[in-house]
Specification:
Strand order of the largest sheet: 1-2-3
Number of strands: 5
Strand content: 25-35%
Helix content: 25-40%
Order of helices and strands: EEEHEEHH
Distance between the termini: 37 Å
Largest sheet: 3 strands, antiparallel
Shape: extended
Radius of gyration: 18 Å
Length: about 100
Amino acid sequence: MLYCRNNPTFVIDFSTLFYQIDQETQEKLPRGVVLATYSFKQIKKLMSSLNLGKTGYGMLFSNKGKFIYHPQENIVKEKQSILAFARRKVQKENNEI
């Protein structure tokens, strides 16, 4: 996730390699990269359009388990992982008992 000083908008980049299979060796050969950039506002709009019931909400994670989108923006800004988030939630619930 990036934050631009000139334009105070959080943006999220998604990228992935694409491959071609070599006909002789059946080896996957990298052929290019697909890149898409979304503003946090666009992601929020997309996620809020999901119909997940009265209390459900959408979340996005990186391949390393870091939040890319969560309705509570501070979770994303703090670069929390789903594991750390879950541990804090369980710890908080245990302290309330």
